[in-house]
Amino acid sequence: MSSGKIKRPELLVPASSLEVLKTAVIFGADAVYIGGEAYGLRAKAKNFSLEEMAEGIAFAHERGVKVHVTANILAHNYDLKGVREYLEELNDIKPDALIIADPGIFTIAREVCPDTDIHISTQANNTNYLTYDFWYRQGAKRVVSARELSLREIKEIRQHIPEDMEIESFIHGAMCISYSGRCLLSSFLTGRDANRGACTHPCRWKYALVEETRPGEYMPVFENERGTYIFNSKDLCMIEHIPEMLDAGIDSFKIEGRMKTALYVATVARTYRKAIDDLLDSEEKYRENMEWYRREIAQCTYRQFTTGFYFGKPDENTQIYDNSTYVRESIYLGMADAVYDDGSIAIEQKNKFCVGDEIEVMKPDGRDIQVKVTGIRNEEGVEMESAPHARQKLRVFLEPPCAGRFDLLRCGC
Phi and psi of 287, rounded to 5°? Predict the structure, then answer.
């Protein structure tokens, strides 16, 4: 594959908070997508106030990174009352794009935010090139492909749509059991509507079978003493198939995870950033570094990996039947918010660590430096042997003193 013939794809990374947005920007994102306090599909995420959005957009734009804002619920009548006012507020802080699924919200957005690109969410079930053409004629800049499409189908879509119509497709993250995220399980079982941002993730629960005349007798659907998790998909990972995604004509590689930690986002963003850049340099370099990509991706929380629908319909091997827990290889300790003259750093502590611990400084350029914690002080300057309380503001001394601002600290499980 000749690097001169490859169009550089956008790496689109999720952010659940201002801290995670900054992490995504520093660790390699070309664009970040976030949710506000209304009309997005992650109501349980922390999400952004308008003030935080404005700060995040300014931070990203200063570094040449775009910010997309989700407003992708499937709206009921009562949802529409505040949409216009909300979009007017968004228009004032100038995100680069709005991600929308509902035609009603789309119509209002075209009126209120005429200069902002609109991207059509995967929730709109975009499975054919005529759908892409329809949204293009309405004024959409980009369509997010349905997760049920193969790469061959996406390539065919690319061949039938205008050249300036962009395709965005998922490259990594959790897979939903339902059709492009349109799920009724949560609404049916808990009364919380996944299509309006309140999913309780019942697809990850443990299920058994009950026969009508034998109430209380639970029979496993699969022969396993722990029961079965029949809706529980493995996570998507396409780190080994970036050339195929480029060949399909995909413009933006989207990472799922708007409820993930800064460590997850940093790890996935940095890994895909390096993989994409290596491939643009040469396919040989990309292949040579594959073991590094695999090892780094394994540092994230994940549920085992699959290639989803990209190479054909998934089979029984894409599901996890014996548990719903994440595999976790690393623990997030905190981000270096500031660096003092003596090399010590300021962090907001995320998980417990102690003086004497061997930890790792994770740098945006791909380096991971093993260090020893030689001292911890609280905000009053009092020395501590450990940092047991979450969100404590600390000054941390490392040997060697190598951390820079926005570097992440992590340790093995």
Answer: -65, -40
Q: What is the pLDDT of residues 217-243, one digit of tens each?
A: 776 655 444 445 556 678 899 999 999
Residue 300 pLDDT exceeds 90:
no
Q: Do 194 and 203 form a contact (C-beta atoms < 8 A)?
A: no
CATH architecture of the domain with range 3-177+234-313 = Alpha-Beta Barrel (3.20)
Q: How confident is the model over 327-385, as pLDDT tens digits? A: 556 889 999 999 999 999 999 999 999 999 999 999 999 999 999 999 999 999 999 99
Residue pair 334/19 in contact (Cβ under 8 Å)? The answer is no
Q: What are phi and psi of 279, to 5 degrees?
A: -65, -40
- Helices (H), strands (E): how many in the chain? 11, 20
Q: What is the CA radius of gyration of the chain?
A: 22
Query: What residue spans in the chain does CATH classification 2.40.30.10 cover?
Result: 330-412
Read off the tokens for 343.
């090399």
Distance CA 140, CA 163 (A): 13
What are all long-range contacts of 50-59, with beta carbons under 8 Å and residues at least 24 apart? Answer: 50/89, 50/90, 50/93, 52/17, 52/18, 53/90, 53/93, 53/95, 54/93, 55/18, 56/15, 56/18, 56/21, 56/22, 56/32, 57/93, 57/94, 57/95, 59/21, 59/22, 59/25
Question: What does DSSP assign to residue 64?
Answer: T
Q: What is the DSSP string of 139-175?
A: T-SEEEPPTT--HHHHHHHHHHS-TT-EEEEEEEE--
Place of tokens 């997005």: 40
Q: Answer whether 26's CB lies under 8 Å from 268's CB.
A: no
Query: Tokens at residue 239, please?
Result: 């780190």
Distance separating alpha carbons of residues 198 and 304, to the nearest angstrom: 25
Structure tokens at 136: 């293009």
Q: Where in the chain is the domain with CATH 3.20.20.70?
A: 3-177+234-313
Q: Under CATH, what is the fold of the domain 330-412? A: Elongation Factor Tu (Ef-tu); domain 3 (2.40.30)
pTM: 0.85
Contacts of 336 (CB under 8 A, 6+ apart): 345, 346, 347, 403, 404, 405, 406, 407, 408, 409
| Strand spans (E) along 188-336 | 209-210, 218-219, 235-237, 252-255, 305-306, 330-335
- CA-wise closest residue to 107 among 75, 67, 142: 75
